[in-house]
């Protein structure tokens, strides 16, 4: 029986000098996929200026009834019922913000207020 001796394990794990070292992993090309920019949480509101056209619109509202009771106030305006913070004119984003026994207050997104007295 011949006893053939195998090389030690440490010799098997390291490459010999005749072998070339392993090539480093190729860098991957940058991904062109882009995450979407986050949406703003609040719309940008530009401070508005008083608009005579909107005041004319407010003056032309037909008020048929009012129930002034704090936050539960309601108004019958142009044959429709509106509550506090309802938008009464979508074109101008005009919102009903206050109801009293003798006036209605409307506000635009820019913070300009318009009052209808009666």
What are the salient characteristics of this protein?
118 residues, alpha+beta
Distance between the termini: 121 Å
Largest sheet: 4 strands, antiparallel
- How many runs of DSSP E, i.e. beta strands? 7
User: Which secondary-structure class do the elements indicate?
Assistant: alpha+beta
Mean pLDDT across residues: 81
Principal-axes shape call:
rod-shaped
Radius of gyration: 38 Å
Provide the helix percentage: 10-25%
Stretches with pLDDT under 50, minimum 5 residues: none
Molecular structure report:
- It is a single chain.
- With 118 residues, this protein is an alpha+beta fold.
- It has a domain of 66 residues.
- The strands form 2 sheets. The chain has a 4-stranded antiparallel beta sheet, with helices on one face. Strands 1-2-3 form a 3-stranded antiparallel beta sheet, with no helix packed on it.
- A hairpin with a 3-residue loop joins strand 5 and strand 6.
- The termini are far apart.
- The model has no long low-confidence stretch (mean pLDDT 81).
């Amino acid at each position: 029986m011949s006893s053939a001796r195998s090389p030690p394990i440490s010799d098997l794990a390291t490459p010999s000098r005749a072998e070339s070292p392993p090539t480093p992993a190729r860098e991957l090309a940058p991904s062109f996929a882009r995450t979407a920019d986050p949406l703003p949480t609040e719309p940008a509101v530009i401070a508005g200026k008083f608009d005579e056209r909107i005041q004319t619109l407010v003056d032309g509202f037909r008020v048929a009834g009012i129930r002034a009771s704090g936050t539960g106030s309601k108004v019958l305006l142009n044959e429709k019922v509106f509550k506090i913070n309802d938008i009464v004119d979508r074109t101008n984003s005009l919102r009903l913000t206050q109801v009293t026994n003798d006036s209605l207050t409307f506000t635009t997104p820019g913070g300009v207020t318009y009052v209808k007295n009666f």
